[in-house]
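Schema walk-through. Below, the input block comes first and the output block second. Nothing else is stored per chain. Lengths vary across the set, and this one has 412 residues.
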Amino acid sequence: MVPATFSPEPIGLTLALLALLWLVAKLGGELALRLRFPAVAGELAAGLSLGAFTRLLPGFPPIATDPQLDLLGNLGIVVLMFAVGLESTVPQMVRVGFSATRVAIVGVAAPMAGGLLAAFLLLPRSTPLLVDLFIGACLCATSIGISAQVLREHGAGKSREGRVIVGAAVIDDVLGLLVLVGISGAVAAAGGGTMAWGRLVAKLALALGFLSAALTLGRTVTPTLFRLANRFRSEQILLPVAMGFAFLLAWLGSLAGLAVIVGAYAAGLILEPAHIQILEERELCRLDELVQPLVVVLSPLFFVLMGARIDPAALLSPRILLFTLVLSALGVGGKLVAGYAAGKDCKGDLVGWGMVPRGEVGLIFVAAGSRLELGGQPLLSPEIQAGIVGALLLTTVAGPLGLGWALGRSRR
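--- output ---
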């Protein structure tokens, strides 16, 4: 007999929510593909719809804030970026280094100028200049995870444009950190804060030092690591060691002040085929083939949860809606302009669309701004936060749509 006080285990609810998320992700992705859109756009839209629906149901578990789901979603984007890194090597990235650097610099400057213009035109003139600067900073970010997924869907991850997009997005993360550090320090100084500029500069130097060490010393350490792993008598050692290496670099990157996805991407980048060849021959399987099922299972969770975190009700104000539309248009335009800085040997529109999505990186900027105070008040009001998040959502959806269109036109 089942006791009258019977209740399921706590993990049971998480498993049920996971089943729901995977079902919604696949339905959204399938619908998007049938409409000739990238699957990731459907997953984002499905998450937005699911989040809006669950907010109308009293007592329904908060999907967008569930810590277990958030952990799995973050694992998804880390695994995806590791898989993206495996598609290139450091020498290949160096060959597109100048192009990627030009794209990254213009891709930070142009959208930031656009954000400043939108804030100046549409927000009350009593708004402090630091708020305008922070709005511009939120537009300078680039979410490589979304574009990387679209490139993988179209088999373009190894193209020159694909490598320029990924390289520029990584440089964007470093430049975005510099902007965020600078504005945060200015806010602290203006509000009488105690944040020292020396500590901010040291934090930036630490981030740059991590990237330099990962891409140089990492290439000399990994061959030894996998030769030692080959001495294990256990079967199927390649994937656990590789994922452990990726998670370790992701953690070290976070300690250096970078997003964990940058460390995971660096781990995949420095794992060149020659380093893992002995283990691949032993297990009769390539590492990218072993990682792919993890990407298929975990990455849709991240995109659905990203969409579910957006509350459409916050965008109902006409003034905020106009601000959102103008901000997103200027944000898209700035990244498209940046695409043509790649040079004549790259398709500028394709690179530009690949730089459009802001995704989780932009949301990290908004979260940082929501914790800053200026004159005893939050730096970003709830209305301004809603407008920025709405613009980030539009660029996040527009990016994969435009990139899919540009890739299709390129093939034709």
